[in-house]
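User: Predict the full complex structure for these chains.
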Amino acid sequence: MDHEGQSMSASYEDQWLLGSSESKPKGVDNLSRSRGLSDPGNKEKKTVINSASIATSSKAIKRISGGIGAGGVGPSSGGVGSSPSSRVKPSTEGGLGKDKKQLTETISASPPKSSKRQSPGGNALFVQTAATTMMTSANSTGKKSMKEMTKAERRALQERQRAEKAARSSPNTAASKKAPQTNENVTPTPSEKAGSNTSGQFETIPVTKKSNVSGGISKGTNTASAPKEIHPAVLVLGLQFAEYKICGANARCIATLTAFKKVIQDYKTPNNTTLSRHLQTHLSAQINYLKNARPMSVSMGNAIRHIKWEISTIGYDSSDNEAKELLCKKIDDFIRDRITVSDQMIVEHGLQKIQDGDVILTYARSSVVQELLLKAHAKGIKFRVIVIDSRPRLEGKKLLKCLTEAGINCTYAFLHAVGFVLRDVSKVFLGAHAFMSNGTLYSRVGTALVAMMAKDNHIPVIVCCETYKFTDRVQLDSFVMNEQGNPNELVNISTSITSKPGQLAGWLQQPDLKLLNLMYDLTPSQYITTVITEIGMIPCTSVPVVSLRQDFKRVQVSAVLQGTYDFFVFINKLKRTKGASST
Amino acid sequence: MEAQSEITSVSNGDNVDSEFDIVKCYRKFLRDNEDMSMPIAAIESLIELIKQSKATTISEFMESLKNASQTLKSSTRNSISLSAGTDLFLRFVTRTSHDVTNLDACKEHLMNSGKVLVEKAAAVRHKIAELGVQFIKDDAVILIHAYSRVVTLLLQRAAKYNKRFKVYVTESRPTSLGVRSSKILRKAGIPATVILDTAVGYIIDKVDAVFVGAEGVVENGGLINAIGTYQIAIVAKTANKPFYAVIESYKFVRLFPLNQYDLPTHTPDLLTFPDLSSSTQNDDSESIPSSPLTCHEHKHRKDSDGSSGGYPDLDKAANIESAQDFESNNPTVDYTPPQYITLLCTDLGVLTPSGVSDELIKLYL
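Assistant: Here is the predicted structure of the two-chain assembly.
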């Protein structure tokens, strides 16, 4: 089974190298000048030093696919990985586009990869940047033999040559080509810090202002310089993701699929190839752009894999229009069956577990849990809700608003008060971002705390999760794979709309201070009592069985079926008819 | 335990719309056949219903079956194993009705398959006993709770294999079924002693393994069994003694209790506090009856009218009427979560608690 993380890391590498040569905007020259690094003399010096650190960091590249192995080299460079962005202050210049341009080049050192995985990503990118710098140094000091380069360096070289070729054909990118060379010299210096502790060079990098609107870590949301084949719907989506306008696994998945429907509808097969072959590559480009905006959620990953499978099964003889219609229908079916109807089934099952007099605790905002609570209230069950929230996302506020508008009796508290309110609680309902194969829950950061405290107090913890969020991945702790949010979010201590900086306001000036804003955490299976899925309530340990046994590509629920009994009847019937047709 | 759950007030034995009274039929099966467990009796009575069904369409037929099983479930106070049996049979019926569309053929098929199912069920216990014998080592001291047919069969089988072991049996009030267990074991040549329910913590260090049966196994591998099982499980876990559950696979129930109070047998009137403001309340009514050794040997399978079974003078002397009150105010079954159970011996093999869910998913998906 294709390890999602690995495939994404490969494409991240590719994308990053592609992006570094093509998507450099014009404003970069200002930046490099302000950093005082534009003179070639400096450049030479830095590249020479870099080659030393490449040896150590190239080892890390080999370990990146392992993910965990880079731990030794990781944390330091991971920390360094975030520091380039941390070195840059929020921009006060107006205009989103311009800010984004500066953003993209300044954080070329800490690209999406470090936001996706703290330690390994930082390393890989530094090696790549170092590699590309090496190319430039090699060009000037004599060609290095192919054997001596690492795989990434060879690939970097290939990409450079490809980019050069493209540059020759279009004059636009010629100007931008110069920019990455000067720019990448900035990036190796942090890796030096990791390697050789030459902190002097770090301090010479002047701090420039940058926008704090986008994720701070993500790059490639620069819509003006995005590759030409990105569909406008996807551009919009990328921006929305980067700014956390669309939050939550289900919402992101549905938004992605809807955008992809538009992409498919506007797609025209080129002459020399078939739809089933080329459309996948076309979609991959869009997917990579989205990944740059914000790392993909597990739900999106599974949905996209499903679409790609559907594409691959399209026959060669069907016309473009037929195929496109079929694909759009399949996407609609997926959204309906695996998300919408599944949510309804989960609510049906969950209603059995809510009784009069219950005090239900929930954390942050899960769309399914929200639906369940609203439905229970509509049914007339008398219960009250305690909403636990946490900074900096404060997603619980939206849930609170929704529930109070429906007339549910609610209490609102922050995460640090959860031990106090748990005394009255009878049940805890949590949402999920993903479920690992070893039964551990991957959800919004803070969920693990709530679950552990509840378990300690013998309060049942119920997780509501659709089966399409089950993944084959196994994760043993929260650090191996996580997403980093914008560290500047931690600076604002206001809990209302007007921002209010707290003690951390001057963190960029402090060389030893780094802010870590993790988005997700892992809850081990022993803290979870039950998982409610559309197929019923199962214990955590049965999660891998479900994803193995059910052939989700073929099971389709065509309408909301009343009650579990009828659902199973229907499924059994389907199984038998499918079995009969397959033999 | 299963047997004592038969003591319930007959509430709606008569309001079944057809002439066929399924509850009466069910009770009759239980009375006539000592060895038949509740779910099998339920399935037998459903087969009777099919035989006498006057339905003309498949959907009517299904409806009548569903209603009958609902009636059965609501007729007894503790209906967990019963519902396991009826659900299993209904699932089977549904599957058959999709394959066979003719009503008469369907009925034929169902009756034959039902017979086969019942026959298989009788043999299942012996299969489990064979599997479970390996967990009893020579010179072992076993602890069992109340009365379970499968567990006693297992111990008898082990004795036949000339294994030497001793058994502690909990008295298991209020049904005192433990006494019955000890009699059966002694007859088979196994030394058995009855201990107080409250003495489990006292002897746990002398015990090598704990064996219990169950009314039902829930979806996460937890057990529903006679009240007191949960306590024994906790004590066994703390004392690091293995806790084995021995159960037939047709007792797998599609329930997922979150805790004790999430069981269908937990009604709001259980374990309520008395209203002491009322002046007509007799002070003695709250006192504990003073005759602990008067075991209420509730002969199961006899219709109970709520009285103490024929000891009128003792009733008065020991305020048994009030004892009856608090006994009816107390639960009869409890739920043992899966983390306390070491292994489950079933006819599908020896499973871990999480394996039960995997099996259920295979059955249902």
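Chain A is about 55% helix and 10% strand.
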